[in-house]
Amino acid sequence: MSQHLLLLLILLSLLLHNPISASPIIQKFKEAPQFYNSADCPSIDDSDDDVAAKPIFCSRRAVHVAMTLDAAYIRGSVAAVLSVLQHSSCPENIVFHFVASASADASSLRATISSSFPYLDFTVYVFNVSSVSRLISSSIRSALDCPLNYARSYLADLLPPCVRRVVYLDSDLILVDDIAKLAATDLGRDSVLAAPEYCNANFTSYFTSTFWSNPTLSLTFADRKACYFNTGVMVIDLSRWREGAYTSRIEEWMAMQKRMRIYELGSLPPFLLVFAGLIKPVNHRWNQHGLGGDNFRGLCRDLHPGPVSLLHWSGKGKPWARLDAGRPCPLDALWAPYDLLQTPFALDS
């Protein structure tokens, strides 16, 4: 072996095994333009909670949006927020409730949102994942096992009691319509949540043969017309959720899953077990989901027939990853205009 080749191999080894020698690469985002209310937007100074720092955080007239926040999906979250604001007729009446894992750098995540949206009303809540981690069973894709995926089950506990209704959104979507329309969904007299239903989907496939062969478990949906719904877009009445102790009901099914394998797909099946057949259906335009392909290969997909108010890249393939890899799907071009990422740079050590 030549001396030059030996030196090259030694240098490469040092670079691979000495992370201090390399400058960390971080994501930096551009500041979004500020959006203003139209003339007919209602006043949101109607809070009945004197503790709230700003009236909007407890206002019933405000649109409350909940999302999770983490380093892996921050690029998608920023794009989603921009799309919500850009298409809202009353963007100053929107308040965001972000949930971050206790192990995450919440101050850094908060600073990222503040720098891109310095005018935004938002709060970051810390989610202690220890309670849910013990209940999580492995699923068909490791990304689905992240405890933060289960935060949507704990919104009623994390958000202040004065927040009575919230729109939950995943981080891999964009809106192209006014979110106030979705937030105003009529939940009727007793529905806890609303979401688009897909009754043509093979509902039985979301649970194992162990579930369906059990004489007791198989009767779970006997008295309701259970249909699949995607939990990435939901309108939730938090007051009814709290009154019905629905977090405990979801946890009971997760505990059952630890004892006997009754499903394979992460945080979705417990929601189906508790709510399928009992939700308020929403027009499919509010969740054109599956644009990320399936949970294994993430292949390109087309839109479902009909109008579109929200595009959702659920599945393995995410638009930012495919764009960066130079292998975008045609519909990823619809996500790109909301991408505020600047060219990555290395911090000086």
Description of the molecule:
- Helices cover about 25% and strands about 15% of the residues.
- The protein is an alpha/beta fold and about 350 residues long.
- Strands 4-3-2-5-10-7-11 form a seven-stranded mixed sheet.
Helical residues, percent: 25-40%
- Give the percentage of residues in beta strands: 5-15%
Largest sheet, strands/sense/barrel: 7 strands, mixed
| Tally of individual helices | 12
Order of helices and strands: HEEHEHEHHEEHEEHEEHHHEEHHE
Backbone CA Rg: 22 Å
Give the overall form: globular
Structural class: alpha/beta
N-end to C-end Cα span:
34 Å
Mean pLDDT score, rounded? 88
Number of strands: 13
Order of strands across the main sheet: 4-3-2-5-10-7-11
Q: What are the segments in which pLDDT stays under 50 over at least 5 consecutive residues?
A: 7-25
EC number: 2.4.1.-
Main location: membrane
Pfam family, one: Glyco_transf_8
Membrane topology: Single-pass type II membrane protein
Keywords:
seven-stranded mixed beta sheet; alpha/beta; 13 strands; two-stranded antiparallel sheet; 12 helices; single chain; 349 residues
